[in-house]
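So, can you check this one?
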Amino acid sequence: MLLAVFSDIHGNRQAFEACLKIARAKGAERFVLLGDFVGYGADPEWVVDTAMELVAQGAVAVRGNHDQAVNSSAETMNAEAQIAIEWTRGRLDTAQRRFLAELPMLVEDSDRLFVHSEASHPQRWHYVRSTVDAAKSLIATPAHVTFCGHIHRPALYSMSVTAKMTSFVPKTDVPVQLLRGRQWLAVLGSVGQPRDGDPSASFVLFDTVSCQITYCRAPYDIATAASRIRDNGLPPWLADRLSQGR
């Protein structure tokens, strides 16, 4: 089965639409959503409704920290993110907020694990910035492949049976064989707010039979997404950063 895995959509309708279109064109058979449906972007209602529809059709979805912040004042964020969350709270209806609140922190599926941040303490929202961080996540699960997001920058980590770690930044559209003799942590880039210098939306395709993963990019209408942010009175930097991929 070919999985399309998305993370950190952040209310960006234009980016999510572009990713879904390309994933379907490439033959994706099932969708996985790694959280942060809301925050930053100006179309949280559409994104959450689309996620709800996909889950109803069999997609897997987990909760991100911005999703949790919608229903919890205990989540602390920087000033711009907090403004966006407070604005988002006023946009979502009861059913949409319930959907976000009831999402699981992680999902185990065969020899795969899906989580927003990382597997050792998913509720603490740690970023995977290094092989040390990746090792903590991999040690916490027997899964062959763990998929996470949160940091908005693509990376692949692996650990051998002797705990030797490797890491690299995968190239776009170049399949990588995730060998069975190692455990893997696939860190996704962001659909709605990439921060790796490439403004194109990011997602991955994973073939469950061949164990090949392919990191994909989707150009999208950044100007419209940015205009939607500005027109709704959200912090201008949230719009400006989209064209910079940071």
